[in-house]
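Exercise: predict the fold of this chain.
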Amino acid sequence: MAVKDIHTHNAFAESVAAARKQYKLNPLPASVNQAKIDKETYKRWFKYIQDMGANTIRIYTVQQDVFYNAFYEYNKDNDNPLYLIHGVWVNDYTQNSHRDALDKGFKERFLSDCRTVLDVIHGNKKIGLGRMASAGSGFYLHDVSQWIIGYILGVEWEDVTVAYTNEQYKDIKGAGCSGCCVFSWQDEWFKRTWNTMYAVNLKRTPYWSDYQTNEQYFGLISFDPGSEQSVCYVDGDASEWTDDDIVADRGDMKLSMKYDEKFVYFMVKKDGLNIDKDKIYIPLDITPKSGSSYYEEKNMLFDRAVDFRQHRTIYGARLA
């Protein structure tokens, strides 16, 4: 079963901004949690998950209260309920400031978070905004413990922590277990990774989609810009382009451009274009503080310094 929800990045950004204004939130990661997915969306997704053959959901940390409300309503009268593997998040600062997980500062914080998770799944907890790192907030009033089949303690444990705590990795097969988890249900367009962290504003990642960040696109559901469809598709269909999109016109050749929160799109129309032989070079000036006005290999001179040169031999292209 193919499932795809279309998400509007603009609407998401607006909801994040509203939440930040109302609750004076830090941009990340709390802001992502505050832009709530509603209960009906969760219940629809639970149905999709079962329809594709899965019976269990894994979550890394405490979600917004609406998740548990939806999970309870979906399961309570369901002869074929979904089950949950619940994670207990290890705070990055706590882990990075202790080499031994049995240190008092590490152990006490971790056990406190474990107790919070247990209270949440038994419907006996209130968590204020920003009170728990990398977690949701709200009123947790529904007991979903009967559908919890396991816990995962921590996320990616640091090697040094494992060594100092004398942890041992367990063989899943040797324990007599079977099955697997698919990562992940939905795209996380706000994710950051090592290869782009140096070049982006980490407080603004929810407001756009970085195609160079691979983990943003691990989801079975794609979150794409546009309320119903993207502003452009690279499919050779020129009907979605108008004269307002033209950025350069030299008579026999026109260059058009569109953009959204994910891509910059170009279309080139040239009289008598031979796709097999003609080459098209598009200079891109990203910032006035860098670039070169000369392309030595092809002996090309530009009227201003450019940062990138896009080379295409086809009518359309899109750039991250």
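Check your answer against the key: Confidence is low (pLDDT under 50) at residues 1-31, 313-320.
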